[in-house]
Design brief:
2 copies of one chain form a homodimer. The first copy, chain A, has 350 residues and is of the alpha/beta class. The first copy, chain A, is 34% helix and 23% strand. In chain A, strand 5, helix 5 and strand 6 form a beta-alpha-beta unit. Chain A is globular, with a radius of gyration of 20 Å. The model of chain A has no long low-confidence stretch (mean pLDDT 96). At the A-B interface, helix 2 and helix 11 of A face helix 2 and helix 11 of B.
């Protein structure tokens, strides 16, 4: 089979997998060959309704899936036999266990941030280290919070402005789709150890970053919220910080002055912009909350945890398959296909 | 100006107005001429980003809106001068106050359920009383909960199965976009009077319905949940009740067996089906929770309060303007344009 398209599989049709599947479909240089899963309920039935070719992720899953009325095009091995790359969005630790299977099938593999850095030996954020993933057999897209840190704090480091970053991460309690299965109510739960894993995890991509994170879980279901205290390499201005962030991809500015004063307002804005599933792939930095005093800066942003790693997963496919060598080219292609923006309320597209 | 399209204005770009504006745009026989509002923040800026012609709802609003960078095509009077019908989705009581202005402009007016029945003397649910609105100058689309009662309980009455309906309505506390402005947490707030207003309100559309509602507000932000105890005119079967509901429009069946076991799962399903804003215009009745014992039936359904009145508002435009005389024709046209379904997980479109 000769192709000028990258043939992609997604293994796991959960919060990340279903979004990656749609994002692959949106890319001009990729074709979604199919999705593997083992659920038999509304989640996989919806994939079938949406016309996505479905494959049984395990031998045992095929019977129950067919019994549930989900048409199957084969099993995971059948799927792997037809693709150049797979994005593994299975639950934590399963991705690492799947890696040998992908290697045996000769399929490039993108794992997600639930897996450890050591699983692939390479952790990925497109703007930071795309080229080091070129031609590798596998990489790991880091988690949502870590991705945001590399994008934003990494942008300030790239600009030579960052000496040290200390962040407090207020995480969502659970994702909306499974919030009936349990969450927390009317409390905040601090993570028991400092640093929380996100700071060290960011160093798997940017080893020289001086970053410490403290994390807690709050009683809401959508999006994380970061509060950063930054020590700069020199006294700087508000405009310089904004310019450094604007020079990096996948950061969008929002403003309290526009009434975007809480996490829920930004979530609603994404719906109003007709984003698929209300997704925000960008990190939303509050431009008018950012405060700079001499060589200190204080920064607040919002991370749509369900969506932020999707564009990174797309770029990782191009890097592993070596089809696009230039990071900026891949990033621009991904971002245009998804409709990403630098300012949500500007009428220009950038 | 000769037209074969219904020229429509929307006054108020809030939770209902923005959805009606999109739904008008989706109709083959309607043109959205513009939207009037007075906000200067992300809400109206988003309308401009989406290419909707904006008008200042008041004289005082024009300056601040222009200052905020929102391009204005004129004021409300300019807008009313160009349209056949207006959907008023302004805050409670403002719609009634606007009615004289609409009448003076010779524009048919659809008010929303925040207004009282007496404001227009006619309350509207398409499947129940479309023809009585034909050619009127104004009507009121009843509120989200009331619309659901007329659709579902009304369908059982139409089938000759309903003797009396007693319902408990567990409402959402506040809408997501404004949940930062206050809500309730970790409690349930019963309405202090029985019946709550929704039962009597349903009788403004179906005067003969024997219905009593009890309402409470719970600590979530998306969708209402109704629990009904029904006395039937005769012993009936589960299949008969389902058949009666299936014979009425805008009711869709969901099943616990598909994993749709809580309000949040259905909300997620709408996103996965790529619905605009994740909207569910249908009433979602749990087919496998419905229980029938002799001449008693117990029924549970979910109401997406932000969206359910949108198709009714579209039909009300056609009824008032008299452009479509047959209710079923209007309903079918609206539903097809929006992509409404009878079963969300069936691969057929009906």
């Amino acid at each position: 089979m000769t192709t000028n398209t990258i043939r992609v599989a997604v293994n796991g049709y959960g919060v990340i997998g279903k979004r990656v599947a749609d994002a692959v479909t949106a890319q001009p240089d990729m074709t979604l060959i199919g999705v593997a899963d083992l659920a038999t309920d509304w989640r996989t039935k919806t994939a079938a309704v949406n016309g996505i070719p479905m494959f049984a992720a395990t031998g045992q899953a095929a019977g129950p899936m067919r019994d549930a009325g989900i048409p199957l095009a084969g099993d995971l091995d059948d799927l792997l036999g037809q693709v150049d790359a797979v994005v593994d969005a299975t639950p934590k630790n399963i991705g690492a266990a799947n890696l040998d299977r992908y290697r045996t099938a000769g399929v490039k593999a993108v794992l997600q941030g639930g897996e450890s850095h050591t699983a692939t030996g390479h952790s990925f954020v497109a703007q930071a280290n795309y080229t080091s993933a070129l031609g590798r057999d596998a990489t790991r897209v880091v988690s949502c919070n870590t991705t945001s840190i590399v994008r934003v704090i990494g942008a300030l480091a790239d600009a030579g402005l960052l000496a040290a970053a200390r962040g407090v991460l207020i995480r969502r309690a659970t994702d909306p789709w499974e919030s009936h299965l349990g969450g927390i109510m009317n409390t905040i739960v601090p993570e028991p150890t400092i640093p929380s894993h996100q700071g060290p995890d960011a160093k798997t991509v940017l080893p020289d970053l001086d970053v410490v994170t403290i994390a807690a879980k709050a009683a809401h279901t959508q999006t994380h919220n970061h509060y950063w205290t930054l020590r700069l390499t020199r006294p700087a201005t508000h405009d310089e910080i904004i310019a450094a962030l604007a020079a990096a991809p996948r950061i969008a500015f929002i403003r309290m002055a526009d009434g975007l004063v809480a996490l829920n307002t930004t979530v609603e804005l994404m719906k109003d912009l007709h984003r698929p599933r209300g997704d925000m792939w960008e990190v939303a930095v509050w431009e008018d909350v950012l405060t700079v005093e001499g060589d200190e800066a204080y920064l607040t942003y919002q991370v749509y945890n369900e969506a932020i790693v999707v564009p990174e997963s797309i770029d990782a496919i191009r890097a592993l398959t070596g089809t696009v060598e230039d990071p900026a080219t891949s990033i621009a292609r991904t971002d245009e296909a998804l409709g990403m923006r630098r300012d949500f309320l500007s009428r220009s597209t950038d």
